[in-house]
Amino acid sequence: MHAETRYFNGARSLQRRISFFIAGGLILASLLAPRVFIEVFPPGNDIVAFRIIYALFVAFDLLIPVLLTIVFFRKAGSVPGFVIPFAVYGVLCPVIDASWLSFQGHLITNLIPVSTLFGGVGLGIIGLGSSQLAKEKVTAIAAIFLGLIVLMASIPNFFTIVHWLMTGDPDSLLALL
Fold first, then answer.
1. What single DSSP character describes residue 1?
2. Rounded to whole angstroms, how far apart are CA atoms 121 and 145?
3. CA distances from 163 to 57, 112, 157 (A)
4. Predicted TM-score of the model (pTM)
5. Over 60: is that where the pLDDT of 138 sits?
6. What would the 3-class secondary structure string for 96-158 be?
7. Are 28 and 93 in contact (CB under 8 A)?
């Protein structure tokens, strides 16, 4: 009877670990989706297509990974809640992007950009805050907001991009170029 209980606890632990890796895979797929979309459907010189591509990047590189991290890492421990989102956003995504999707250079010539490392730290802080939601809500919400601030600060020209997407102002577009 004792061995059966230990077996089922081990199976639950394995199931929980697999769900964290599935969440990491979903976050990675979300981060790489706009880049694959650009490869399949190049935007050309159309300003509307360019605006749609930027909207896809904001949605798939910011909103969806944040939501997936908050939902999936709610029952994680502190270490997996930080390490898995950091590794996916800060290390794994740029490595795959540089070696598989980028035609400008190889993994050896394109080092991991500092902005993606900061973005990984921001997403890791969000995962850490999400893992603390069941215990201390105020600390968890503060960590999630801090992670969002770090994540938004890591995206170059974030506020200019959002302003251009919301208004279509050509002056914001000139600031991007």
1. -
2. 13
3. 14, 28, 10
4. 0.78
5. yes
6. HHHHHHCCCCCCCCCCCCHHHHHHHHHHHHHHHHHHCCCCCHHHHHHHHHHHHHHHHHHCCCH
7. yes
| Token pair for 1 | 């009877």
Q: Tens of pLDDT along 4-13?
A: 444 445 556 6
Residue 96 is encoded by which pair of tokens? 């795959």
DSSP state of 66: H
172 or 82, higher pLDDT: 82
Helix (H) or strand (E) run with residue 72 in it: helix 64-72
Nearest to 155 by CA among 122, 130, 133, 131: 122
On whether the CB atoms of residues 123 and 65 are closer than 8 A, the answer is yes
Q: Are 52 and 11 in contact (CB under 8 A)?
A: no
Q: Report pLDDT for 36.
A: 82
Question: Taking the mean position of all CA atoms in its chain, how far away is CA 113?
Answer: 15
If we measure between CA atoms, which residue out of 117, 123, 110 comes closest to residue 90?
A: 117
